[in-house]
Amino acid sequence: MQNLIQLLLRYNAFFLFLLLQVICFTLIVQFNKEQAAVFTATTNRFSGRFYNIKDNVTKHFSFERENNRLAEDNARLFTQLEESKFHNFIEIDTASNPEYFQQYEYTAARAINNSTNKANNYLTINRGRRHGIKKHNGVIGGNGIVGIVLGVSDRYATVMSLLHQQTKISVRIKNKGYFGSMVWSGSNSSEMSIDAIPRHALITEGDTVITSGYSSIFPGGMMVGLVKNVEGVSGSSFHKIDVELTEDLNKVQHVYVVSNLFQEEQTQLEEELEDE
Predict the structure, then answer these.
(1) CATH of the domain at 129
(2) CA dist., res. 4 & res. 225, Å (int)
(3) Which of 34, 78, 116, 149 could make an SS bond with 137 (beta carbons 3.0 to 4.6 A apart)?
(4) In this structure, is residue 229 part of a structural domain?
């Protein structure tokens, strides 16, 4: 307090000048219509800009919260849909047992890192072990599949992107029954290719490609892409089919992690058959 008093005494002339300036300015604005109008217009212009900036900042953070909320709502709806779908296929005498109600769970997540220009690409998502994420969970976006979880920590997980040379996804041509493995050539980030579909199969451009349901990672019927090109391979009895992915992996943000509640049981049984 003593320092403040000393400061006022030292610069009393300057502060008195400022006080008189404020009083003069106030009197001019109050008793002169033209100056008052100019002051009001100027004040409104600057305050309008301030509130516009404030509104944009508020909207930005509100949109982020709203996007996260919608992603979580979508995950719950996916889970409820899978619960209903699985329930429709089970026998009546097991319908009362909650163990049989649901095969898949969905967890909303956000991609916080992503690559698409390498030979082997990965994503990092902001969900991990404490959120129920496990290795070999599938990851999907709003328009199609994205990849497979490879590594998990408490709060994060790394995902092997579809754009990876070791990716092999079991898919089928919708409404035509033919299935094969979809792989990435390592060049175009929006295309993959399917092998093992016989040449006598009538596959045309624009046909829909979906997950086959033959793996324990992705449910059957999930969107993958559209057939872009079909050609025969010399000396082979199979088509070479190029697929345009419906999920743009260059723009992935919000994703959903798919957890197959029966995955461990299915994998263990299949491994036992391979050992025989």
Answers:
(1) 2.40.10.340
(2) 72
(3) 149
(4) yes
d(CA 224, CA 244): 8
| 222 belongs to a structural domain | yes
18 in a structural domain? no
Cα 23 from chain centroid?
58
Token pair for 212: 């086959």
CA angle 169, 222, 100 (to 5 degrees): 100
CA–CA gap between residue 151 and residue 71 (Å, rounded): 22
* Global pTM value: 0.68
* 87 Cβ neighbours under 8 A, 6+ residues apart: 95, 100, 101, 102
Residue 164 lies in a domain: yes
Helix (H) or strand (E) run with residue 152 in it: strand 145-152
Query: How many whole angstroms separate alpha carbon 254 and alpha carbon 115?
Result: 15
Domain count, the chain: 1
Cβ(86)–Cβ(102) under 8 Å? yes
pLDDT tens for each residue of 161-208: 999 999 999 999 999 989 999 999 898 999 999 988 998 899 999 999
